[in-house]
Amino acid sequence: MSILPLMTVVCLAFFMSGCAAVGPNYTSPPALQTPVEWTEASGTAKAAAGLEQTAWWKTLNDPVLNQLIEKAVQGNLDIEQAQARIKQARAELKVAGTGNIPTVNGAGSITRQKESENANIIGETSTLYTPGFDATWEIDVFGSVRRSVEAAEAHVGASIEDLHDTQLTLLGDVTNYYVQLRAAQEQLAITRHNLEAQTETANVTRERYRSGLTSYLDVAQAEAQKTTTAADIPDYESTIKQSIHRLSILTGQMPGTLSEQLIQTQPLPDCNGGLATGLPSELLTRRPDLRKAERNLAAASADIGIATADLYPKFDLTLGLGLNSNTISKLTSLSSGYWSLVPEVSALLFDGGKTRASVEKKQAVYDETLAAYKSAFLSALEDVENALSSYTFAQIKRKTLAESVKSYKETLLIAEEQYRKGLTNFLDVLVAQRSLYSAQLNLSQSEAVILTSFIRLNKALGGGWKAVEVRGNTKRELFTQG
Q: Considering only Cβ atoms within 10 Å of each terminal Cβ, which end of the chain, N or C, has fewer?
């Protein structure tokens, strides 16, 4: 029998495998409406390029913070998990790519049998040696495999952006907890300083009471204020310990590992650098979470094509080659060879609308993913605007509080002088002490808010994640920017 018809089918299938894949062709994300400029940008903002490559934390001029970030990007376990997810996605891409490659199986058998005495050849015993292999290939005529590869490639891209987003989050978390630590240390120092002053006041008041120069009420009030201030100390000490524990975990170490390095009080980092915001539209290409959402959108588009391909016929080709002989000596001769070529076509005739419903579902998933992409962009714009607003008003508040601290210091000096001269009551001194203490704490908190707003802004802008390279890379370049 001639194999020409079979070869015609094979050639036709090869030709058809080069046809366009069914389903939508995803080339780029849909255009989104973007604002021209930031509404909350003030005179401190300036144009920027390459914010993702800028080590913004280095503008805080804190060597300890720089060391912590270096340890974190090399030791953080969230980073390690994200790297493992990339490996998983790349493995899935390899699996998807094998759909275009024939599956080859090798097999061999030795059959020893004796015929029935009632068969045509009575009682004959024979041995049949059959080594060979077969290859099966599903020809990707309508692009199911190609769409699967597209989806897998998009998932790899999404997993890479997930790593970048993890890096960005880590940079913000380390800096935030470091600011929290230094703010708590500063506020603890303020509290202890005020406690010393209030203790001295309470001692002086007690001596004046013993001398008959004041009533015991003044003594009780002074003691009450002193103990109230002392009660604030455990809260700050707890915050300090918890911040150190968290920083240790973020660097991939046991909770108390960094205690010796960080327990000594250090001032808050200096935040005097100008803000660089860039254009709102740049968030789409800079922020890893938006880049990840775009890759998920590409994968959802490819999934529509995969589901659509199930509506079309499938073409399979099976090739068998081998040897067949009843004696080992003749097994290698050309006359023992055999082959088979089996092209097969299968088509969906009826499934109650199941396959079309699957296509509709994938289309709905794409629509949901697109809405999520748009929503993520709006949230990103909100993040930046809120951070800008917080930064601007925190600076205004700090300036006002600095003036308030200066005024309360003068008020306390006057109140203490007048009390010693008997020109005012002791309550005025206590109020002045308490007011100064509160103003100093508020000023410290305001400075911490400025720093956290600065951190929040850089994170919202997608800044800094390209300025670090995590462990596992062949080229290790940390903090090359700034």
A: N
Asked whether the beta carbons of 318 and 136 are under 8 A apart, the reply is yes
With 0-12 / 13-18 / 19 or more C-beta atoms within 10 angstroms meaning exposed / middle / buried, residue 279 is middle
Provide the 3-class DSSP secondary structure of residue 111.
strand
Phi-psi region of 269 (alpha: psi -120 to 50; beta: other; left: phi over 0): beta
**CA 160-166-172 angle, 5° bins:** 145
The answer to whether 348 and 310 are in contact (CB under 8 A) is yes
Classify residue 356 as exposed, middle or buried by CB count within 10 Å of its CB (0-12, 13-18, 19+). middle
Angle between helices 288-309 and 144-210 (to 10 degrees): 150
Burial class (CB in 10 A: 0-12, 13-18, 19+), 238: exposed
User: Per residue in 324-376, pLDDT tens?
Assistant: 767 776 666 777 666 777 777 888 888 888 889 999 999 999 999 999 999 99
Q: Which domains, and CATH codes, for the chain?
A: 19-99+143-312+363-467 (1.20.1600.10)
Sequence-ordered list of residues with C-beta below 8 angstroms from that of 194, at least 6 positions apart, any chain = 229, 433, 436, 437, 440
CA distances from 309 to 22, 54, 141, 155, 303 (A): 6, 45, 9, 20, 10
> Cα 394–398–404 angle (5° rounding)?
145
**Torsion-angle region of 438 (φ positive above 0: left; ψ -120 to 50: alpha; else: beta):** alpha
The answer to whether 12 and 313 have CB atoms below 8 angstroms apart is no
Query: How far apart are alpha carbons 130 and 111 in whole angstroms?
Result: 8
Residue 443's contacts (CB-CB under 8 Å, 6 or more residues apart) are: 398, 401, 402, 404, 405
* Percentage above 70 pLDDT, the chain: 82
Residue 15 has pLDDT above 70, yes or no: no
Are the CB atoms for 316 and 137 separated by under 8 Å?
Answer: yes
pLDDT tens-digit readout, 45-96: 455 667 888 889 999 999 999 999 999 999 999 999 999 999 999 999 988 8
Helices (H), 251-330: 259-262, 283-286, 288-309
Helix (H, G, I), strand (E, B) or coil at 40: coil
Residue 171 has pLDDT above 70, yes or no: yes
β-bridge mates for residue 219, sequence order: none
Annotate 80-99 with three-state secondary structure: HHHHHHHHHHHHHHHHHHHH
